[in-house]
Amino acid sequence: MNYENIQTPCYVVEEDKLIKNLEILKDVIDKTGCHILLAQKCFSMYSVYPLIRKYLNGTTSSGLYEAKLAHEYMHGENHIYAAAYREDEIEEIFTICDHVVFNSFAQWEKYKPLAIKYKKECGIRINPSCSTQEGHAIYDPCAPFSRMGVTKDNFRDDLLEGISGLHFHTLCEQNSDDLLTTLKAVEEQFGSYLYQMKWLNFGGGHHITRKDYDIETLIYCIKHMKETYDLEIYLEPGEAVALDAGYLVTTVLDIVENGMNIAILDTSAACHMPDVLEMPYRPQIVGGYDAKEKPYTYRLGGPTCLSGDIIGDYSFEKPLQIGSKLLLCDMAIYSMVKNNTFNGMKLPAIALKKGETIEIVKEFGYDDFKMRLS
């Protein structure tokens, strides 16, 4: 990939890698008859929606604006779930969404008249209280005191009239063995209600396109629930759609020394890839290695005033220079959708690589910072 002439910072999504992921997901659809939806909260690069809709059934949204984006550009199934809906947005949501999933029976009771008016399919998110994650409570919907979903103790079977499906989301970057564990909890706690349902949504967090992912177990899970309860099955992966399909290209602005060499980049962990700090995790870099593994080690940091705006410590075969370009890997997901303009930072451009051609899809400037303020 020729990136030397790219104006940085810039997210670059490679179309061939995106297609490779989509082909894997389409194969699951073809083998099971399930519906797979793009979770826009992870990847909302709508310029590639015409490509994605050739493979997937539609999208899922976390609020009105995502739902509108899908309605305008995807033209497939349009699902939505939110922990709570705003009164001034809910009617528009019903006009453009096919499935509306509620987080509580109180919200369902409140908005049931609109569901009847617009004749849309509605569901309830359940919480099977089955945590399969380790060390990342911030991403665990089954953590103690979670606000996500209705637990068995709070389930209202007397309010199921008009509810056509159940939804759960318990995973984050996990394999299908954790899905299997979750489904056992779902069946044990909510199985009797599934016979009354039309569909079941497995939510997201399925790392289906990861190299070590066990697709056969996923297929078993889908077919088991589909055949046992006569259900349509939905999945809502986000990362699996664009996993490893994009880079964040950045330039070294300066190199300073304070006990070690520190390279200051024109990209920021805090602004352009917040999950690096929130998760936290250390992104891979093309040609970068663990600290001290190669001769030249640097701490990579952003240009903001935040002292902790640090990407990590990396070593390289050759010394970095001011002007050196670096490629941070797996930056299509949870980057564009979460970036911000703290410190007045310029937002990275967005580009699409087709074959050997890199096309700038969108650029950002001062007005994009200004329009967020008053």
UniProtKB/TrEMBL annotation:
N-terminal signal peptide: none
Entry-linked Pfam families: Orn_DAP_Arg_deC
Annotated EC: 4.1.1.96
UniProt GO BP: lysine biosynthetic process via diaminopimelate; nor-spermidine biosynthetic process; spermidine biosynthetic process
Binding-site list for substrate: E239, D275
This protein's encoding gene: nspC
UniProtKB keywords: Decarboxylase, Lyase, Pyridoxal phosphate, Spermidine biosynthesis
CDD domains: PLPDE_III_CANSDC
PANTHER family: CARBOXYNORSPERMIDINE_CARBOXYSPERMIDINE DECARBOXYLASE, DIAMINOPIMELATE DECARBOXYLASE
Protein name: Carboxynorspermidine decarboxylase
Cofactor: pyridoxal 5'-phosphate
GO molecular function, a single term: diaminopimelate decarboxylase activity
Record-linked InterPro entries: Ala_racemase/Decarboxylase_C, De-COase2_C, Nsp_de-COase, PLP-binding_barrel
Record-annotated Orn/DAP/Arg decarboxylase 2 C-terminal domain positions: 117-331
